[in-house]
Design goal:
Keywords: Disulfide bond, Glycoprotein, Membrane, Signal, Transmembrane, Transmembrane helix. InterPro entries: Bulb-type_lectin_dom, Bulb-type_lectin_dom_sf, Pan_app. With about 475 residues, the protein is α+β, with helices and mostly antiparallel strands. It is about 20% helix and about 35% strand. It has 3 domains: about 130 residues, Orthogonal Prism (Agglutinin, subunit A); about 140 residues, no CATH class; about 60 residues, no CATH class. It has a 6-stranded antiparallel sheet. Strand 12 and strand 13 form a beta hairpin. Helix 3 packs across helix 4. The longest helix is centred in the C-terminal third of the chain and has 68 residues. It is elongated, with a radius of gyration of 44 Å.
Length: about 475
């Protein structure tokens, strides 16, 4: 009994040491069939450049399985791949696993539902999954000796909105497969948006890159010739000094790809954003930015006659006076889609893009709608010519108010001056009248004082005195 008691502290000590020196599963590099990756745990590439795990983009409360750059202290994850972009997971209930057939799947809510990420093999197979230093996530066969063999599935075959070095844009004939990028709906919703970047093959065999907006050509790179794209020379064999593009064409596949020279792999990527522009990792001006400037390769969109080519949408915060026409439900509209709806509607004055859970939608307002600007109000996008018209209207309103007001002030001043002048004239007249009367009285008094009786001499008065005393010789003075 004493021997057993002595062993207990030793076992506890060894257990603690093992706990601290063994790496946690969240820092593991490989997912084996016998294990699961829960929300909050991660797989990290061998050189620690990339990390795989569950995350919530932007302000979303939904969870997605993705790969991002593993940059310590970098809060805004640079996500390069999303597994379940169109099937979000509510709360932290997702678990990543590989089943007995080598199929990669996400189990949700304790296994009640699952999201398949790879195809099912025809027989039981031993496999493992690993994120590589390139950002590719691969499932490989595990041989009896523990070594890994052929690739069963890889994330590079199913890109989302980001092109990493070594990825392909193009197509494979046998078996039939396409490599293309598709934009996110918004920064908070990685579901498939309305823009896609693909390869386009011309009749003569030449190829180019094409950005599609739904089913319409939005932008083209120009044909690939002499090692570069006709309209985007920066994307070439020697573009930017360290990014080398190349075009591979044979009987099995045709695709574009690029590689990195030297030590420039960190954050090297091209991303198709939700407005249809290609953003480059070094922060250069986006390629194909047709929505706010006309780049080389932009395909002119047909605008309604009511719109001017110089018109733009401007963001304001405030409240509208009436309810908007609402487009939502299962449309999954992007901000650009809402803008296009307003642009192509001649009565549309403004629009708003909103997110409702994992769904999105638009609201548009007509010309008759009133707007009250308020810093803490909702974000609303206005056509600038309506804003200018509104400002001009306000100017005319102030003018209409100011002119009559000024006239009224002038009239008031004139009346005030006239009344005051009239009063002064009357006052002067009264003073003069009193003065003349005083003159008459004083003359009579002097004569009486001279001899103590009324004088017999004729008194002489001025015409002004008599006129004043008789009120200008009024007839009522006669008897």
């Amino acid at each position: 009994m004493m021997a057993i008691n002595k062993r207990i502290p030793l076992l506890l000590c060894l257990s603690c040491c093992f706990f601290f020196i063994s790496p946690s599963y969240s820092d593991s590099n490989t997912l084996e069939q016998s294990r699961q990756l829960e929300d909050g745990q991660h797989l990290v590439s061998a050189d620690e450049t990339f990390k795989l795990g569950f995350f919530s983009p932007g302000t979303s409360k939904y969870r997605y399985l993705g790969i991002w750059y593993n940059i310590p202290g970098f809060d805004n994850k640079k996500v390069v791949w999303v597994a379940n972009r169109n099937i979000p997971i509510f709360e932290k209930s997702g678990v990543l696993m590989i089943d007995e057939f080598g199929k990669l799947k996400i189990s949700v809510n304790g296994g009640s539902t699952s999201i398949a990420l790879s195809s099912v093999q025809s027989k039981n197979i031993n496999a493992s999954a690993t994120p590589l230093d390139s950002g590719n996530f691969v499932i490989k066969v595990v041989d009896l000796d523990g070594s890994t063999g052929r690739i069963l599935w890889q994330s590079f075959d199913y890109p989302t909105n980001t092109l990493l070095p070594g990825m392909k844009l193009g197509g494979r004939m046998k078996p039939d497969h396409m490599w293309s990028l598709t934009s996110w709906i918004s920064e908070s919703i990685p579901a498939e948006g309305s823009f896609s970047l693909t390869i386009g093959v011309i009749i003569n065999g030449s190829s180019q890159l094409i950005i599609w907006w739904k089913r319409s050509v939005y932008w083209t790179s120009g044909v690939w010739q002499d090692g570069q794209f006709e309209l985007v020379p920066v994307l070439s064999k020697e573009g930017q000094g360290y990014k080398n593009f190349s075009y591979i064409s044979n009987d099995d596949e045709k695709y574009f790809t690029y590689s990195i020279n030297g030590n420039h792999t960190l954050l090297a990527r091209y991303m198709l954003d939700s407005r249809g522009a290609i953003e480059e990792s070094t922060g250069l001006a986006p390629i194909g930015a047709c929505s706010y400037k006309f780049d080389m390769g932009c395909v002119g969109q047909i605008s309604p006659n009511c719109q001017n080519k110089n018109d733009r949408f401007e963001l304001r915060k405030g409240f509208m006076s009436v309810q908007a026409v609402r487009f939502d439900g299962s449309y999954n509209l992007s901000l650009f889609d809402c803008e296009a709806k307003c642009w192509n509607n001649c009565s549309c004055r403004a629009y708003d893009f909103f997110i409702n859970g994992s769904q999105t939608g638009c609201e548009i307002w007509s010309e008759e709608t009133g707007f009250a600007e308020y810093n803490n109000g909702r974000e609303i996008y206005f056509l600038n010519h309506f804003l200018n018209h509104s400002n001009n209207a306000k100017w005319w309103i102030w003018l209409v108010i100011a002119v009559p007001g000024s006239v009224a002030v002038l009239v008031f001043c004139f009346l005030f001056y006239f009344i005051q002048r009239r009063r002064l004239e009357e006052q002067d007249h009264e003073n003069e009248h009193e003065m003349r009367l005083y003159e008459l009285e004083s003359s009579t008094t002097k004569e009486q004082k001279r001899d103590g009786k009324k004088g017999k001499e004729l008194q002489v008065f001025s015409f002004e005195s008599l006129a004043s005393a008789t009120n200008k010789f009024a007839s009522k003075n006669t008897r």
